[in-house]
Design a protein that fits this description.
67% of the residues lie in helices and 0% in strands. By secondary structure, it is mostly helical. Helix 4 crosses helix 5. The termini are far apart.
Length: 123
């Protein structure tokens, strides 16, 4: 792509984004609820939010979002959250890694088969 085309595109993105953000601020200042006002924001706008969550639900979120099937962008976000969590609650996070992230789950039939194998039964 030519440098002038790229520069013009960047300028257009900046112009549209600045205009949309201005309209968003105007809407907020006139009493429009944030949930409604953000309709004006383009998809390239970063979002800031405050999150209150317990460890059980945080670990559930990380289980889903660290999975290889999750979208790459949310996996990267989840990795950052996981790193923060490790520093705040290292023992709980180590248990989560050991017993959830790096574990396997068996169905009832599989557990029954494993019990027979461990008991020395032939299947």
């Amino acid at each position: 792509m030519a440098d002038d085309v790229a520069a013009a595109f960047r300028k257009d993105v900046e112009t549209v984004s600045d205009s949309a953000y201005g309209k968003y601020r105007d809407a907020l200042n006139s009493g429009i609820a944030r949930e409604q006002a953000r309709i004006l924001l383009p998809v390239n706008t970063y979002t800031e939010w405050y999150w209150k969550i317990d460890l059980n639900n945080l670990f559930h979120f990380l289980t889903l979002r660290l999975d290889d099937h999750a979208q790459e962008e949310i996996r990267e976000y989840a990795r950052v959250i996981a790193d923060i969590t490790k520093t705040i609650v290292p023992v709980a996070y180590a248990a989560f890694e050991n017993y959830v992230l790096n574990s396997l789950t068996f169905s009832a039939k599989e557990m029954e088969a494993l019990k027979h194998i461990f008991d020395g039964d032939t299947l």
